Amino acid sequence: MILYFDVVLLINLMMNYMILYFVALVLNLKRVFSRLFLGAILGCLFLIGVISEKYMVLQYFPIKIIISAAMIFVSFQPRNFRELLKTLGFFYLISFMMGGGVLAFFYLFNLGKNPLTDTFIINNISVPWWILLISAFISLIFLKYLWPSIYRILAKDTLLVHTIIFLDEKPLEITALIDTGNDLFDPVSNYPVIIVELDAIKNIFSKDLAVILEKGPEESLAAISELVADSRWANRFRVIPFESIGKSKGLMVGFKPDKVIIEHDDKIKTTENTIIGIYHRVLSPEGTYRALLNPDLLNE
Questions:
Q1: Global confidence as pTM
Q2: How many helices (H) and strands (E) does the chain have?
Q3: By CB neighbour count within 10 A (0-12 exposed, 13-18 middle, 19+ buried), where does 175 fall?
Q4: What's the DSSP call for residue 81?
Q5: How far, in Å, CA of 232 to CA of 168, rounded?
Q6: Residue spans per domain, the chain
Q7: What is the DSSP code (8-state) at residue 144?
Q8: What are 73-97's pLDDT values in tens digits?
Q9: Which of 54, 156, 178, 223 has the fewest other C-beta atoms within 10 Å?
């Protein structure tokens, strides 16, 4: 069988990029296309050892670890060795998951008996290239939509944090959930957003503003803008676009607090660089938490 190096290189580059993207998705790391792409290119160094015996050293296990660490360092710029190890661990975990998905599809549908013309080689097994895309797509669905829910169920108690929100020097104590699915950022300041139930926070606003907020963002945007135009709230008011399952596009009203105090892992973190997003529904049916914390606030 003829194996075209340019095809193998392209597929390897694409898969490396997807794995790095999924790592960023799971750990809620900043995703910069240029850095992820450069990291994916570094991952293709393994292929040089495949086509030339002169560079067989690139196939040795220690070298593979070094190249993988370089991919992580270039893609995400971890701040310390512990963060590097954590990210590297998830890199291998997701790689194994995608590789297992490819072989599962291969054997489940008996593709070895009737492979397509264009194939990819994994451990001397001829695998149709499109299985890689299917595996990547399923991994995306799992990590983007299912993993946050599973993660919350498995580690619910450890993800609950005591949070104090200060608005006009008025403190609001609330229990928040560290939500890996909350990747909202204010488009103006690029500050991470804490999503808070309206019923939990409305008492901190004036009565006029609270009444307007209860109407919902789409119906009340004009009224809110007019109300806060000449007040101290003018510079605090935000409109945050978001997407969610069942609602492709939406708007969320937000305000910049004076500061937020977060108690997590026996540490107290204070930040002014966040936005409070107002959510009009109940976040937890049991009332366990009333806010969703953007994990970026803990990584600053």
A1: 0.52
A2: 11, 11
A3: middle
A4: H
A5: 10
A6: 5-154, 157-299
A7: I
A8: 999 988 888 888 888 988 888 887 7
A9: 54
